[in-house]
């Protein structure tokens, strides 16, 4: 089986990409846009992730990276079983697709990043180290929220 994701439609050769998946919780919706909007909402952020994002907001301007508002992470389109969140900035381009595979009983989060310059590479170095645990935690928390347990 070949895997593909809509994150690669406009970023065929990212500098960074990963995929994380969880079991689709009982009672959670199958709409990928609902998953994407919820995952990037404050109510689905685990406390330690919210704290890390607050630190990011405080430190980002020190390295010339603009602060990101919550509205920056909106769904730009739905393609098949995936909802795409896309953010382009001066230092990097970010794509994140939340996919819901009802038949397999899985929710997956595919991320792709294109680093545009030295500032982007400097900024993303520590972000890349934390990205996996952050996404895993956000996916699990989103599943609990959407299943009515969070």
Automatic annotation (TrEMBL):
Name of the protein in question: DUF2867 domain-containing protein
Lineage, highest ranks first: Bacteria, Bacillati, Actinomycetota, Actinomycetes, Kineosporiales
């Amino acid at each position: 089986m070949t895997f593909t994701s809509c994150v690669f439609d406009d970023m065929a050769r990212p500098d960074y990409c990963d995929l994380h998946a969880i079991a689709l919780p009982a009672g959670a919706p199958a709409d990928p846009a609902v998953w994407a909007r919820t995952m990037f909402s404050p109510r689905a952020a685990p406390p330690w992730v919210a704290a890390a994002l607050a630190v990011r907001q405080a430190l980002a301007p020190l390295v010339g990276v603009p602060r990101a508002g919550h509205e920056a992470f909106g769904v730009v389109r739905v393609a098949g079983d995936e909802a795409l969140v896309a953010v382009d900035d001066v230092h990097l381009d970010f794509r994140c697709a939340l996919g819901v595979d009802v038949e397999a009983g899985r929710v997956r989060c595919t991320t792709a990043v294109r680093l545009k310059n030295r500032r982007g590479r400097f900024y993303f170095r520590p972000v890349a180290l934390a990205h996996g645990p952050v996404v895993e935690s956000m996916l699990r928390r989103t599943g609990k929220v959407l299943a009515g347990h969070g």
